[in-house]
Amino acid sequence: MTTILDSIITFNKSFVENKEYEQYQTTKFPNKKLVILTCMDTRLVELLHRSMDLKNGDAKIIRNAGAVISHPFGSIMRSILVALYQLQAEEILIIGHHGCGMTGLEHETLLEKAKARGVDLDVIEPLEYAGVDVKQFLSGFSSVEENILNSVDLVKKHPLLPNNVPVHGLIISPETGELDVLVNGYTEETNV
Predict the structure, then answer these.
(1) Which of 10, 174, 176 has the alpha carbon at shortest distance from 100?
(2) Is 10 among the domain residues?
(3) Do 42 and 86 belong together in one domain?
(4) What pLDDT band is residue 190 in, cutting at 50, 70 and 90?
(5) Where residue 158 sits, what CATH number does that domain have?
(6) Which end of the chain is more exposed for a tag (fewer CB within 10 A), N or C?
(7) Are residues 68 and 56 in the same domain?
(8) Distance from C-alpha of 181 to C-alpha of 40, rounded to nearest angstrom
(9) Contact in structure between 111 and 138 (CB atoms under 8 Å)
(10) Using CA atoms, how far apart are residues 68 and 16, in angstroms rounded to an integer?
(11) Same domain, 92 and 75
């Protein structure tokens, strides 16, 4: 039986042998000086780039479920700061999307699915005792707009972010690629 990994490795060998990588070669510095936080939704993988005229090497892209910044000193914010200070990004775009699976997500749903896949939910009690709010950790948000506004606000108020870095908040349609600007980081205007 051929696994997904087997298929990937077989394709990769051909990709490298045929030097198909050459068309993607660029530097580690983003050409358009952007760092983008967006959702991991599969519909956005190519659509986001095409709808914004982004080519390989134009932006640092950070993806997670919902384009959420859950902690001001977590890995997402660290990645944004590294992009600014080490990789020459100059602007930040936080881009959510309509119809996001994190909208209205409740922790119970994920825990039930984890249990159905064999996870022993007795592990939660020690986590909560150690200060981990599992319910909050596994919950989504009430609206995409609210999430983007919260994330933009968190980034703009971060103590390690210079005041002159524009932080934009947008929402993309996963069907058409149309972008709605919620926060214009140049003018600080909020369109909600």
Answers:
(1) 174
(2) no
(3) yes
(4) confident
(5) 3.40.1050.10
(6) N
(7) yes
(8) 20
(9) yes
(10) 35
(11) yes
- Which residue matches tokens 């910044």? 69
Phi then psi for residue 13, to 5 deg, are -60, -45
Task: Give the list of residues 6+ apart from residue 17 with CB closer than 8 angstroms, or none.
Answer: none
Give how many domains the chain has, as a whole number: 2
- The verdict on 119 and 189 lying in the same domain is no
What pTM value is reported for the model? 0.91
Over residues 73-93, the pLDDT tens digits come to 999 999 999 999 999 999 999
Looking at the structure, tell me whether residues 64 and 131 fall in a common domain: no
The reply to whether 129 and 57 lie within a common domain is: no
CA distances from 96 to 4, 15, 149, 192 (A): 29, 32, 10, 14
Q: 122 lies in which domain range?
A: 106-139
Query: Are 49 and 119 in the same domain?
Result: no
Kindly report, residue by residue over 10-50, the tens digit of the pLDDT. 999 999 999 999 999 999 999 999 999 999 999 999 999 99
- The Cα 166–Cα 183 span in angstroms is 10
Question: What is the rounded distance in angstroms from the CA atom of residue 190 to the CA atom of residue 150?
Answer: 12
